[in-house]
Write a structure and sequence with these properties.
This protein has helices at residues 5-41, 61-86, 105-112, 121-126, 129-155, 183-190, 192-206, 221-243, 249-254, 263-272, 277-293, 304-310, 318-321, 324-329, 339-353; strands at residues 46-51, 54-60, 88-89, 116-117, 163-164, 246-247. By secondary structure, it is mainly α. It starts with a helix and ends with a helix.
């Protein structure tokens, strides 16, 4: 009495999402824990940071894994926030205008564990924001997995050789016996378009709908369920794949040599001696050009005399300041790559996971 399929489906979808989203959040947290474990083991493992896929500044594997972990942490926060917004009871809205019967909508709030009732019956049966919002959350989460997997694919190439994926998460070639392809990382990356498509499907479904209920809304379930299932499966594979991987710390450390990734550190050395950064930037660029013209791949391979030609402020101590280890250890700003900073990040993430 006083019920409609319209408010009942709005209820059922909320109850379903309230049950399954915490399970997805647990999967995301398991992935974060795997990344934190790698970071703990590699606080001092050097790894070049890139911008525009060019050598930028020295960093560590820990800092990179923690960057990935922060992406996933935001996904958890987004999902939790979306959960809060669906925790309103739609029952009693009827087909669209409620009922002439003396229904007590608040009674079912307590029985079903909601925090309150939806504010407008017409909006309640027309609303599919929650389907769109959760699928948007899934799409962002999937984009993060895709970006991580893109780096895994790059790092597993012979040219990089930073990561060695377990054979369980690699495949061979039907014709080339030497191949060890990162197929699972590629499949996770490849399924991103599928999840994006589910989001576009839902957005398009509602774009021209008049209030209240229209049969179009029946089409909300397939894209919602598909996006959820896809992301959940990808998360499980990603966690297993990254947890079983081995890291070539020698190759990663070698990536910090060459490419002049310590040029900014030379500029900051001069700033500490009183030079304005704008001028120091020009001096560091001049030192890089001098090294290139001399056939060298590192600033520190220049003689002190050559460096002094760039600026008389440069002293013998510059050579101890330009090693990759020193560049990393001195980057102590909050969130930075120094071992003490990454240790703080690890502790904070462990608190988040509890």
């Amino acid at each position: 009495t006083g019920r409609s399929r319209n408010d009942q489906i709005a209820l059922d979808e909320r109850l379903y999402l309230r049950r399954v989203i915490p399970l997805l959040i647990d999967e995301v947290k398991t992935a974060i824990a795997a990344l934190v474990k790698i970071a703990e083991d590699h606080k001092e493992s050097l790894l070049t940071g890139y911008t525009h896929m060019q050598h930028a500044q020295p960093g560590t594997l820990a800092q990179h894994m923690l960057a990935w972990a922060q992406m996933l942490r935001r996904d958890c926060l987004r999902l939790n926030s979306s959960l809060e917004r669906i925790n309103e009871n739609p029952l009693g809205s009827g087909a669209l205008q409620g009922s002439t019967l003396p229904l007590n909508r608040e009674a079912t709030v307590q029985k079903l564990g909601f925090t309150g009732v939806t504010a407008n019956t017409l909006d309640t049966v027309s609303d599919r924001d929650y389907c769109i919002e959760f699928t948007s959350d899934f799409a962002i989460l999937q984009s993060h997995l895709s970006r991580m997997c893109e780096e895994i694919v790059l790092w597993s190439t012979t040219e990089f050789s930073f990561i060695d994926l377990s054979e369980k998460w690699s495949t061979g070639s039907s014709i080339m016996p030497q191949k060890k392809n990162p197929d699972f990382a590629e499949l996770i990356r490849g399924r991103t378009g599928k999840v994006y498509g589910d989001l576009i499907n839902l957005l398009t479904m509602v774009k021209g709908l008049p209030l209240a209920y229209d049969r179009d809304l029946q089409e909300d379930k397939e894209p919602l369920f598909d996006a959820l299932d896809t992301v959940e499966a990808n998360l499980k594979v990603f966690t297993a794949m990254i947890s079983s991987a081995k890291w070539n710390t020698e190759k990663m450390a070698a990536s910090c040599q060459g490419g002049f990734a310590n040029a900014t550190d030379l500029a900051e050395y001069l700033v500490r001696k009183g030079m304005p950064f704008r001028t120091a930037h020009t001096v560091a660029a001049k030192a890089v050009r001098s090294a290139i013209d001399s056939g060298l791949s590192r600033i520190e391979d220049l003689s002190l005399d050559k460096l002094k030609e760039c600026s008389p402020l440069i002293e013998e101590d510059i050579f101890s300041k330009l090693s990759a280890e020193e560049c990393v250890s001195q980057r102590k700003v909050t969130g930075g790559p120094s071992p003490e900073c990454t240790e703080k990040q690890i502790k904070d993430l462990k608190v988040f996971l509890t």
